Amino acid sequence: MKLIYLSPIPWASFAQRPHRFVEWFHTRFRGDVLWFDPYPTRFPRLSDFRRRASHTQREPGLAADLHPPAWLTVIKPRTVPIEPLAIGAKLNRLLWRHSMANMDRFLSAGDCLLGIGKPSELALQIMARNPDVPSLYDAMDDFPAFYDGLSRRAMERREQEVAARATKISASSTALLARFRVHKEKLFSVLNACSTDSLPPPGNLGRSGPGVIGYVGTIGHWFDWEFVTALATASPSTLVRLIGPVYKTPPKSLPPNVELLPACPHPNAMRLMQEFSMGLIPFCRTSLTASVDPIKYYEYRALGLPVISTQFGEMALRGDEPGVFLADEFSDLANLTNSAINHRYSASEVEDFRTKNSWDVRFDSSGILP
């Protein structure tokens, strides 16, 4: 069996759920993969041009090799960024003729699965063109929440159409599972997970020295700077280390114990995480984060780190898990930090978590394949 996969992120980006899914698929079925990079499904914003101007160089640390493996072919669809308009869909269909021809050749060589990681007009066109090909919609984000106005309404409509046509739907969070409950006969819960094959042995995770509250990831519009500032202020002797690209401007006056480090390759980030005393997930509570199950939670736990988090999305449901410390506006942050820094997982607890939360185990037990 082969796979056609329409990804929400480019192949040449930090490895996330889409990369892990296609790698798992290839390992299980030895089949080739035709990967479609994403294209703009909303109208351009001024911030898009500002970001492009300020990031002329590729960010360091791309986890996915720029040269895809022999079993994977990347297609970058040509488009005009006006898909929310009816005329935009018509124009793009003309630009997709070459991509569709490549897909037809790929399909002609045997059984295939269509994987959709992001709703789009291209996904609907491929589904309509190949009604007998089984399809999976992997709902991993509340995509309409990224947009507003006409772009949001268009995405809502296309998401509903993709979900209705898909053979199966997988949801990466409890909120997304509820969102698609009308399709319960073909709906599966598939939470996120983490890569566990290159982690140090659980017995080698001892830490010493001053406390470090650490975060690795993008600092985007969902990042709660107010919470981070309050946390650092409440524990002035504890270092708050933030690693990743910054797209949301920090406050002008950060506490002196907040340290900002640039993005780095994922293996380096995993090594830096081993210097943390606890992992931090400081996300705002919004309609977007309500559907999020953060992969960094699994990475922290797989490294034996206790976790301090705001109460958003899937994290809000983990308050009873050992070593997970949830904060709200009424929390005593100094006491919360002290409790987290003193928590220790046993080697057997870490090993058990890794065993149950690897990507291979998650996808193997999901029931999402036809």
Features:
370 residues; alpha/beta; Rossmann fold; 2 domains; seven-stranded parallel beta sheet; six-stranded parallel beta sheet; 13 helices
Characterization of the model:
This protein has 370 residues and is of the alpha/beta class. The chain folds into 2 domains: 2-190, Rossmann fold, CATH 3.40.50; 202-355, Rossmann fold (3-Layer(aba) Sandwich), CATH 3.40.50.2000. It is built from 13 helices and 13 strands. The protein has helices at residues 17-29, 46-54, 86-95, 97-107, 121-129, 149-165, 174-179, 225-234, 266-273, 295-302, 333-341, 347-356, 359-364, and strands spanning 2-6, 33-36, 72-75, 112-116, 135-139, 168-171, 187-189, 212-216, 239-243, 258-261, 278-281, 307-310, 324-327. The strands form 2 sheets. Strands 3-2-1-4-5-6-7 form a 7-stranded parallel beta sheet, with helices on both faces. A 6-stranded parallel beta sheet has the order 10-9-8-11-12-13, with helices on both faces. Helix 5 (121-129) runs parallel beside helix 6. The protein is globular. It starts with a strand and ends in a 6-residue tail after the last helix. The model is unreliable at 52-63 (pLDDT under 50).
Distance between the termini: 11 Å
Output the CATH topology of the largest domain. Answer: Rossmann fold
Relative helix content: 25-40%
CATH class of the largest domain: Alpha Beta
